[in-house]
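Session log. Operator J.P. requested a structure for one protein chain; no other inputs attached. Running the standard single-chain path with token output.
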Amino acid sequence: MIEIHGPTSHNYISQRLRLHYVDWGNEDKPPLLLVHGGQDHCRNWDWVAQELREDYHIIAPDLRGHGDSQWMVGGSYGTFDFVYDIHQLLHQTKMTPVKIIAHSMGGHISLRFAGVYPELVEKLVVIEGLGPSPDRVAKWEKKSLQTRVKEWEANLRRNSGRQARRYETLDDAFNRMHEANPHLRPDQARHLTIHGANQNEDGTYSWKFDNYVRGGNPTGMTVADSHELWSNITCPTMLIRGTESWASDPAKDGRIKHFQDATVVNFEEAGHWVHHDQLDKFLETVVPFLKE
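Structure written below.
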């Protein structure tokens, strides 16, 4: 069996933040960007990257406030700041046009990026990145701006007093990781824990992400804005969903109609992390789509 070596680690600057990404090599191959979700990190893609690295030049960033990237000074993590970070990474590495696989918040960011810069994206795979269901979004939009700002402030204040949880041992953090997603194999949960936690000075362990990434935004984009950006996306797009997840089916709730060229694929026995829960089936579906 050929030994597979891990990626190399790099930093780049975006809006004065030092942001981190990993590079799986093969610079002469077509570029592929892997974008993780909220409260996650770039090494969550390792199993996908190991399967695809021979065919693509893969890079995977730690989003600002996550993994080994710097945290914001202040409490606001705006989606278009993340979009700028992704564009800056692709600009500096000269990896456009690019194919993208993205999960959850990373999918949300990637959809916006592809909607603003459709000419830079060749294929797009988004795992549960459309955000809340249309019903939930409609309820949010019915709230007055005053109410939304007050709720946002209250949320920020809660986050300011929220101490990073400390685990006495790495095994304790591993158990929490496995509890959060029972579909994970023990080796997967341990790998994600090792790369997703830092050891504190007192010997305990805490997750790497900034609690302020939970803050949200009181203004945000309207539903019409989202639909406009989705409709700008020209590349073939695959929207993936786990049937055991909270996410609604975009083919049933009507959101797919706002895309020019999109298909929906549902995975049984999978929750929010489809690429972990059903890795083999995920690859069987995605690999041919990327090569078409």
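Operator note: The chain has a mean pLDDT of 94.
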